[in-house]
Structure formats: structure tokens, C-alpha cells
Amino acid sequence: MALSMYQLTVPAFVRGLKVMSALLKKAEAHVEQHGSVPDAMISARLADDMLPLTGQVQRASDTSKMTVERLTGVPAPKFEDNETSFDQLQQRIANTIAFLESVTPEQFADSEERTIRLNFGGFPDFTGASYLLTFALPNFYFHVATAHDILRNQGVKIGKLDYLGAFA
């Protein structure tokens, strides 16, 4: 049996977002244990020209929900990118997962051949399958990995198994 576009999107995005949620819980525990300032952790970044931790969560959320919208035509919720706390980031992840889980496999019918046009970056038109495999999934995992790396850089005791979500 071939993999469906639904199987390649919703479960993968939900799993990645749950991993991100678990990473944020470990970061919050680290902040509490060390008496650190939460704002310093959630505004941390790897380089000056990269988004902070909040931006990584926001982009992973946006990438997952907008990918599903582009592939299915089901309107994704709009979020303001105004999270300033661990609780708000967790709520954004939960809201994103709720949207993803509301979309059915049937709504992905023929999505692999749908034309996807991005209105930024000068990208060529994609088929749904090429968009998912060469743009959306790599972009999503870039932001999950970068969030992981920011937290590691800030001293949070996480490793590869935390990123892989082996026990999530």
C-alpha cells in the first residue's frame, strides 16, 4: 500500500509538534530549576540573523497548518505571532495540533497533483507532492531542529532522542 499525502503530513506534523512541546517543557523546567529568567530562554537565538525560540515554534506551527491548507483547501486558523511565555507557546502548539487533527484523509484527495504557488521567495510552482517533499517537510523540521539547538545552546539537558521523540 502506498503512503497517502495525509499520512505524510498530519501524523508527521503532529508528532513533530508534540516533540517541540516536550522540548519546551524541559526548557521551562530548566528555567525553574536554575532560577533563570523565562524571557531569556524564549527569546534566545543561535545567531543574530536567526529567529528566536518563539519564532521557531511559530514557524513550525505556520508551516504545518499552511501546508495542510495548501494541500486540502481547508482554511487554517490565523495566529498573531505574539506569544511571550511558555504557556502561550504550548497553547499555540495545542491549537495547531487541534486544527491538523480536524482535517480528514479524504480532504487530501488528489492533493499530490494540486498546483501549489507560494507568494514569496520567487519559488516555481510545485505539485502538491513536490511541495510537501522538497519544501514543506524540510522547512518544518528545520524549525523543530533549530528550536532543539537553541535549547541545547542554552544548557537545557536534551539530546538526540528528545529531538527524535523516541518516547513521545
Automatic annotation (TrEMBL):
Pfam families: DUF1993. Signal peptide: none annotated. InterPro entries: DinB/YfiT-like (IPR034660), DUF1993 (IPR018531). Transmembrane segments: none annotated. This is DUF1993 family protein. It comes from Duganella margarita. The lineage of its organism: Bacteria, Pseudomonadati, Pseudomonadota, Betaproteobacteria, Burkholderiales.
